[in-house]
Design brief:
TIM Barrel; two-stranded antiparallel sheet; globular
Length: about 290
């Protein structure tokens, strides 16, 4: 059965389409709009299709006890200072929207609560991403579907029963599933890239991609050869920057190589039909005796 195509912005995602590449900015902007713009510039320069941010309603996602915990950070001395400092509000997102349109690159969010979905909806997003941590949040899954936009679902920290339950809630229409391991950074032996094949066989009508948190690029490129049609990796200006996701991210020069190698493998995959190429015919004349 051929895989259904899902339209994300002005591009189609699925088999025989160009691999859709997402640069996950997430919280790597460290609360700075200027850093966010630099990361948008970098993603565009690398040839990515979209950038992704994260949005939380801090008072909903975290308990008062969690927010009150001591945690020294650039914004203060508590975990709450950190979580609030990393969140962009309306003015910042309005500028991100303007800037991405000016740079001709798409943007969207992972929303961690219903209020965050409602907040991002005012920017008319091309799709929503559901983070691995939210895969079991049935209320949040249903709330996303309320707006009728395409959904990208990451599957870290989940087995097939949990994934199947989420798919049953979301429905298969306009859904893309990303194979994922939720450790930062991930060990190569825990990436289980063959899970991409498993998901392709289980859901032949759903495009399957890969969201990686590993160190290095080769395993992400390999995911394309296994059939991933969408790739997501975290992007950073410098892996040594302050922040919990920086070490599992890819610096700009590495991201350029990643996009280059994905496009190379994509081109090399072909259509599977064994044929004699015109370029081979002079070699046949030169080397074959019979």
């Amino acid at each position: 059965m051929s895989k259904k195509l899902v339209k994300i912005g002005n591009k189609m995602v699925g088999e025989n389409e160009s691999i859709y590449i997402i640069a996950e900015i997430g919280i790597n902007h460290n609360g700075s709009l200027e850093v966010a713009k630099q990361l948008i510039d970098a993603a565009k320069e690398c040839g990515c299709d979209a950038v992704k941010f994260q949005k939380r309603t801090v008072s909903v996602v975290y308990t008062p006890e969690e927010l009150a915990k001591p945690r020294e950070n650039p914004f203060g001395l508590t975990n709450g200072d950190l979580k609030r400092g990393l969140e962009f509000g309306y003015e910042q997102y309005r500028e991100i929207d303007r800037y991405c349109k000016m740079k001709n690159i798409e943007w969207f969010n992972s929303c961690w609560d219903e209020g965050a979905v409602d907040f991002i909806e005012q920017f008319n997003p091309i799709c929503y991403k559901i983070a691995s941590a939210s895969l079991t949040d049935e209320k949040l899954l249903r709330h996303h579907r309320k707006y009728g936009r395409p959904i990208i679902l990451s599957t870290g920290m989940s087995d097939m029963d949990l994934i199947d339950r989420a798919v049953n809630i979301l429905g298969k229409k306009d859904l893309i599933i990303l194979h994922c391991t939720s450790t930062y950074p991930s060990k190569s032996e825990e990436l289980n890239l063959k899970g991409i094949v498993t998901l392709r066989e289980k859901y032949p009508e759903i495009p399957i991609g890969y969201s990686g948190h590993e160190v290095g690029l080769a395993t992400t490129v390999a995911s394309v050869a296994l059939g991933a049609v969408m790739i997501e990796r975290h992007i950073t200006l410098d892996r040594s920057m302050w922040g919990s996701d920086q070490a599992a991210s890819v610096e700009v020069q590495g991201f350029k190589k990643l996009v280059r190698d994905i496009r190379s493998v994509e081109s090399a995959m072909g259509d599977g039909v064994i044929r004699i190429y015109e370029s081979e015919k002079p070699i046949i004349a030169k080397l074959r005796r019979v």
